[in-house]
Amino acid sequence: MIRPAKFADILQLAELAVEMHQRSVYADRATLEIARFKKLCIPAIQNHGKGACLYVADTGGRVDGFIVGVIDRLYGISAEFYATDLFFYVSPTADARAAFGLADAFLRWAEGAPGVIEVRPGISGAMEGWERAGKLWERKGLRLDGAMYVRRFK
Description:
- The chain has a single domain (2-139), classed as 3-Layer(aba) Sandwich (Aminopeptidase), CATH 3.40.630.
- A hairpin with a 2-residue loop joins strand 2 and strand 3.
- A 5-stranded mixed sheet has the order 1-2-3-4-5, with helices on both faces.
- Helix 1 packs across helix 2 (34-46).
- The protein is of the alpha+beta class and 154 residues long.
- It starts with a strand and ends in a 15-residue tail after the last helix.
- It has 4 helices and 5 strands, in the order E-H-H-E-E-E-H-E-H.
- Helices cover 34% and strands 24% of the residues.
- 23% of the residues are buried.
- It is globular.
- InterPro entries: Acyl_CoA_acyltransferase.
- This is N-acetyltransferase domain-containing protein.
């Protein structure tokens, strides 16, 4: 079941953040500050449906996926807004439909947000199999728009 996150979910969300970090290219390069992650979840839950959203995939009381969405001014200078995701993660143990449901919930939220003229979910190469996320967004009617480049220093 896909639903808005509750404050009671924060501990399970933190566990997923640890799992996500351990599976990422940053596992050995960057320190996860779990308190900071929890702090980020609070306003996303409080303001859910307004300037942010936090949806979870719930399987019998177990949170096994989540998406955090935010709204910002287009390019920081427009009167209009865009919606993007900060995190989109589904555990390998989750139901195969969880990612689709989270994406649908995020898109519905973005489409209904006042002043939002486009949605721009991001995909980085931080996780193995990131290409699957691109295929998911394409199946949802989004198209590739640009690219992201990186130079790692450590």
